[in-house]
Automatic annotation (TrEMBL):
One of its GO terms (cellular component) is membrane. This is DMT family transporter. It is found in: Membrane. Pfam families: Mg_trans_NIPA. PANTHER family: CONSERVED INTEGRAL MEMBRANE ALANINE VALINE AND LEUCINE RICH PROTEIN-RELATED. Its main location: membrane. Keywords: Membrane, Transmembrane, Transmembrane helix.
Length: 304
């Protein structure tokens, strides 16, 4: 092999197996988009009949959602999205497949525009392009530089400690500031929590493959369920105060960025990535985040 190609092959941590997770994650993104649209419709109907949810959805409103066929169908579709996402994590590193949920943003934006008969303005379209473009380039770099590594006990303990702190902060913040919570606050909260859900799912899958299922893994499952429950509640509140494509934008950018940050700093999935790749991760991630806040500000259905 020529010297130049040899150096390139050493720089790129390419494992053909990790590409299997990409199409699986894309199918999950489709279900994520459809599920979000149906759930948003169910929340909107319940909110219209129960005089809104300024302080967050009540227990009565949450129970009413179970009687809405559209919300139930949306929940089943989101369940399928989770199944496909978990399957993709079994093949690929978090930083490769988790950001691919951004594909759901394009699908949701088109569907919501057709259903609500509200045309997206120029600023919203630019924001969507920034979200998807930033995430797409991030995944392109990650696919050729990321590596799957065994999850150590120390890694899991660090993740669980961080999650415990995050859960306490969000629970406290919601109790104290729930009257001021707007769509973007709920979305950020849900995105951060779902980032931990994806990470813990990856950890549990890895430890099962390693035949290392013990009390710490059970604790990870409990943390996963707690984060999923609080994140799910935040998502339903976000639907009541913002359009579905804004919710999906936040979840498909903030969620993977949190998971990716943990994957890089704790799990070492970018340990073999060259310096230029790390710089690219920061730049493309910042572009995607800029798109989310742009959509929150300029979307024609966004509530100020």
């Amino acid at each position: 092999m020529p010297p130049g190609l040899s150096e390139l092959s050493e720089t790129i941590a390419l494992d053909p197996k990790q590409f299997i997770g990409i199409p699986i994650a894309l199918v999950g993104a489709v279900f994520l988009s459809l599920g979000a649209q149906f759930q948003h419709r169910g929340v909107a109907k319940v909110e219209a009949r129960t005089h809104g949810a300024d302080k967050g959805l009540s227990v009565k409103q949450l129970m009413a959602l179970l009687a809405r066929p559209s919300w139930v169908i949306g929940t089943l579709m989101l369940g399928l999205a989770v199944v496909f996402q978990l399957t993709s994590l079994g093949f690929s590193p978090i930083i490769v497949v988790q950001p691919l949920g951004a594909v759901a943003l394009v699908i949701t934006a088109v569907l919501n525009s057709r259903v609500s008969k509200v045309k997206l303005n120029r600023s919203s379209v630019i924001s969507i392009v920034l979200c998807v473009g930033g995430v797409g380039l991030f995944v392109l770099v990650a696919a050729f530089t990321a590596v799957d590594k065994p999850v150590t006990t120390r890694d899991l303990i660090v993740i669980l400690i961080i999650l415990a702190i995050v859960l306490l902060l969000f629970a406290f913040g919601f109790v104290v500031l729930r009257r001021r919570f707007k769509a973007i606050a709920y979305i950020v909260g849900a995105g951060v929590l779902y980032g931990f859900v994806a990470t813990l799912a990856k950890v549990v899958i890895s430890r099962i493959f390693q035949a290392h299922f013990e009390w710490l893994t059970v604790l990870a499952l409990i943390g996963l369920l707690a984060a999923a429950a609080l994140g799910g509640y935040f998502v339903q509140n976000a639907y009541s105060s913002g359009p579905p494509d804004l919710v999906i934008a936040g979840l498909t950018v903030i969620d993977p960025l949190v998971a990716v940050a943990i994957g890089i700093t704790v799990l070492g999935e970018a340990s073999q990535a060259p310096a230029w790749a790390l710089i690219a991760f920061v730049i493309f991630g910042a572009v995607a985040i800029l798109g989310v806040f742009g959509l929150a500000r300029y979307h024609p259905q966004a509530k100020r």
